[in-house]
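Q: Could you predict the 3D structure of Epoxyqueuosine reductase?
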Amino acid sequence: MGHAYNRRMPTASPSSPPDYAVLARDIKRWAIELGFAEAGISGTDLGEDEGHLERWLEHGHHGEMDYMARHGTRRSRPAELEPGTQRIISVRMDYIPPGTANAWGVLEDAEAGYVSRYALGRDYHKLMRNRLQKLAGRIHAVVGDFGYRAYVDSAPVLEKALARNAGLGWIGKHTVLINRRAGSYFFLGELYTDLPLPVDAPASAHCGSCSRCIEICPTQAILGPYRLDAKRCISYLTIELKGSIPEDLRVPIGNRIFGCDDCQLICPWNKFAQHTTEPDFAPRHSLDGARLVELFGWSEDEFLKRTEGMAIRRTGYEGWLRNIAVALGNAPPSVQARAALDARADHPSPIVREHVAWALARQQR
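A: Sure. Here are the predicted structure tokens for Epoxyqueuosine reductase:
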């Protein structure tokens, strides 16, 4: 979890209140000037989404992500999370850098490691929070002191539902937000505020009868439209899960070593995806298609040094080795793969040893 920046102060009482319609238009313009692709404004009513969340939790689809249940209704009731909240400014930022190795090509190369495209460069959390702070500063220059709090995946926030209500896109059948003009390869952030800004119209859905995302999921984690079982999702298995990956899900994981993009790659709307203009999101250490054997050879110090400031750090070194061991088990049998696995066969971590043993057995098939 990251940290939110906040500034809770009594709203100033200017001699003449601001024109909130003009301010809303200015906020959207400032957001783009600060590097966001788009901004929208919504209210705080998430009643229908709260019911969907409660049913998802009741079915246990959150797996080991206990924090999803721990926060109760603060996730779906913004004013409970941040008292005084009247409006939420949602922003999005594209993340696919130009020149990134073709995702399908990497997935088809069983000796390469596939890293979800959002995680190839700098971690977005701090970068986006800093920009949201600057956006709040511009608002402050117009209205004086006001209450706000900035979030980027850093608190119990239903960010996709808020972004949908702010007109930034609709939630697709794979539960990812889709924008008609930009696909789904973007990050989201929010500025909770006590300003009575005019709200935008929610985005309408445009998935139609398409079910490609459901059909392509390697582990059948998408149980049906808008129903994701995180326990089967490769992003959960390779990032959130800290223990052993269930054996029946290891082969379907293929060479995905951090996250998964299949449901987005197959989505027809991503033909409209926009390249990011943010240089910090460019791939580091050739991670858009690096060799599995090479990555498996990283020491813990190398892992920590090379993933500094990156989302990949979230899996931890033990998880990194576990994930690559699975990918090596799915790779074509080779002397190089077996040698790399043999070198980790006596690793101090029982999790790593278990997955290495499984991979070695697969390499001898």
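Q: Anything worth pointing out?
A: Residues 291-365 form one domain.
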